[in-house]
Amino acid sequence: MPFSVCTRDCYDTCSMVAEVKNGRLTVRGNPKHPITAGFLCPKGALLPKWFHAEDRLKAPLIRTGERGSGEFREATWNEAVNLVAGRLRETIEEHGSESVLVYQYAGDRGVVNYAFPLRLFHYLNTSMLDYGICDRAGQEALRDVYGTAVGMDPEELKNQRLIVYWGVNAFWTNLHGFMLARRCGLEIWTVDVVRTETAKRSEGFFQIKPDTDVLFALGVAKVIIEEGLHDKAFVRENVYGFEEFKNYVKTLSLDYVSMETGIKVGEIETFAREFAEKRGVIHIGYGFQRSLAGGEAVRAIAILPALIGHSFGFIYDMKTIDKSYAEGAFLRTRPARRIPQMKLAEYIERGKIKFLYVYNSNPLASLPNQNRLRKALVENDVFVVTHDIFLTDTALYSDVVLPANTFFERLDILDSYYHRYVALNEPVAKLYGKSNSEVTRLLAKALGIKNRHLYESDEEVIKKVIEMNGLNWEELRSKGFVKVQEKQRTWGTPSGKIEFFSQRAVKRGLSPFPKYRSFKGKYPLRLLTPTHRMTITSQYHNTHGMIDPNLYVNPSDAKERGLEDRDTVEVFNDNGSIRTEVRLTEDVPPGVVLLYKAFWAKLLGWNANFLTEDKTVEKYGNGSAYHSTWVDVRKV
After folding, report:
1. Are 29 and 39 contacting, i.e. CB atoms less than 8 angstroms apart?
2. Taking the CA of residue 557 as centre, how many other CA atoms within 13 Å lie in the half-sphere pointing to its CB?
3. Among 63, 223, 250, 392, which residue carries the largest CB count within 10 Å?
4. What Å distances lie between residue 373 and 104, 199, 300, CA to CA?
5. Whole-number Å distance between alpha carbons of 448 and 86
6. Pick from 565, 578, 571: which is nearest to 630 by CA?
7. Is the alpha carbon torsion for 205, 299, 591, 286 positive or negative?
8. Residue 330: left (phi > 0), alpha (psi -120 to 50), or beta?
9. DSSP assignment, residue 589?
10. d(C-alpha 580, C-alpha 592), whole Å
């Protein structure tokens, strides 16, 4: 039977075995995979429902009505591709190649499906996206300390005693990693603002206030250092700036740390002592670093494993293979203008984008400040093309919509940003649409481009990537996955050591040490917008239908506003407003409210991103700041 691998934007990257029986797709986990271990998450189990969905796009569409109205007519592939190619050519001739932007992200993480279309846009010297939506601030912070954001191999958990899930709801978003930690017998702690499902299944839970992660980590470091619990030999040999950092945390008062974080002094001391004694490792989440305080927080947290002797005692990203050949940036003849992902609306408003090509993404669900973005698309002269499996919110605002196929219908390979395995994805059936690489070849041909790199087959690209990374194609085909062995690692910092005093941060105009800063908004309630268990950002809302649109509020905040459970409320700020029902819960602390993110507005009527801020954290790579959003709530 063919091997498949889930291409969703998820840590786990599950290896699967798929087949078609009586015209219906069936999937099961590959039992031989060491990490994903033969079982699927609830979303993975429903992949056949997604694959066979009746609302999959079956033919290209060309807009006939107002943008966003949903008025389209069907077209042939030939007509649609020629229209797109013609408008692309006209835009470049009239406004220059930089007025064209390809907007894509990780809706499908297949190496070919993700990267190959970029070859065309590199060849045309268009603008490219500067990805800041997901994990950028944390990446920058970890590079400040370690010179890399690549942490430990999770298979090394078998040699550990304690894992701290810091700002990550792993039971929902890294289920196989959570179960791996359980199989390895690790004690599990959680640090989070919300009492998540992971927190409820942990041996220790430290519920902190928003933006105080940096202060909590510094307080823990202070106790470890002042009680002599750090690995003195490791620090002496491998850390740059320890004495300066020691003097820095000496000025901190644990009473102040406790007051700001909401964690009692005794709990801070217990965390520090047991973390040091058990040589804990930390899985650093993505959610909390999507905030104005996120970069500084990750920098502080990253110091803790090194204090107790870990060379790379964190889990964050995992870059196992070089995929640059698939993307083909070598086809450019001049440097790319990079447009920050979070500033799409601003660039459209300024007339800098005249042609927008979207694939592997649904920005009209996933980007913040949706009212601004939709207004920009309606009021400005920009031609929008979307290549997708479904008629998403983004597709609704497009001039041309091209039907995509699914990963069950094409050949590809995937790596993981959690573990070190590369997996094979083989086609098992064919229903509708074309892959991203197929459409790229069609557009190149319609544009009259002769360059051979735009016509390579998927298999040719995959084999070249595999070869460049020293992997064996035949082994991958026979097993369905191969492990990328870790090479000898060093710290890529200016000093060649782990930098508690960060020279890289100083060059960006930051403090050499992580600094705590309290942020306040115009409105009284901090809005958090994590992912729901049954979606991957906006994916699966239309097929699984298992969403939770409720606003979660602490009873004390509800009482102050005269709210009762299941009341209909308006949630509002300067970006917009939405209506939904309230659910009262102690899992959310006072001063904080929670909405799950990025449901389809075309189905629900709104999503949380009608409220979220489109600010960026400039000194941390223009990282996103979704969770630095403040709102208020009133009964309707």
Report:
1. yes
2. 25
3. 392
4. 16, 35, 34
5. 11
6. 571
7. negative
8. alpha
9. P
10. 16
User: CA dist 544 to 11, 53, 541, Å?
Assistant: 20, 10, 6
Rounded CA gap, 260 and 213, in Å? 10
Give the Å distances, CA to CA, from 622 to 133, 294, 362: 9, 12, 20
DSSP 8-state secondary structure symbol assigned to residue 500? S
Rounded Cα gap, residues 9 and 110, in angstroms:
10
User: Could you count the other beta carbons within 10 Å of the beta carbon of residue 462?
Assistant: 22
Strands (E) in 360-487, as ranges, are 383-388, 400-403, 412-414, 421-425, 481-483
> What's the mean pLDDT in 445-461?
98
Nearest by Cα to 137 from 349, 338, 292, 305: 292
Nearest by Cα to 177 from 87, 283, 62: 283
**In angstroms, rounded to a whole number, what is the distance separating the alpha carbons of residues 623 and 615?**
9
At residue 395, the pLDDT reads: 98
Partnered with residue 527 across adjacent β-strands are 593, 629
DSSP 8-state secondary structure symbol assigned to residue 471: -
What mean pLDDT is predicted for residues 170-175? Answer: 98
The two structure tokens encoding residue 93: 């001739």
**What angle in degrees, to the nearest 10, is found between the helix axes of 265-277 and 213-226?**
60
Give backbone dihedrals phi and psi of 189, rounded to 5 degrees, phi first. Answer: -120, 155
Query: 17 pLDDT band (50/70/90 cuts)?
Result: very high
In this predicted structure, the answer to whether residue 1 has a pLDDT above a threshold of 90 is no
**633 beta partners:** 571
Q: What is the DSSP pairing of strand 629-635 with strand 568-573? A: antiparallel
Query: What gap in Å lies between CA 473 and CA 264, rounded to an integer?
Result: 55
What distance in Å separates the CA atoms of residue 98 and residue 81, rounded to the nearest whole number?
A: 21
Whole-number average pLDDT of the chain = 97
pLDDT, tens digit, 9 for 90 and up, residues 248-297? 999 999 999 999 999 999 999 999 999 999 999 999 999 999 999 999 99
Q: How many residues does the chain have?
A: 636
> Per-residue DSSP letters for 86-120?
HHHHHHHHHH-GGGEEEEE-TTS--HHHHHHHHHH
Task: Encode pLDDT of 544-578 as tens digits.
Answer: 989 999 999 999 999 999 999 999 999 999 999 99
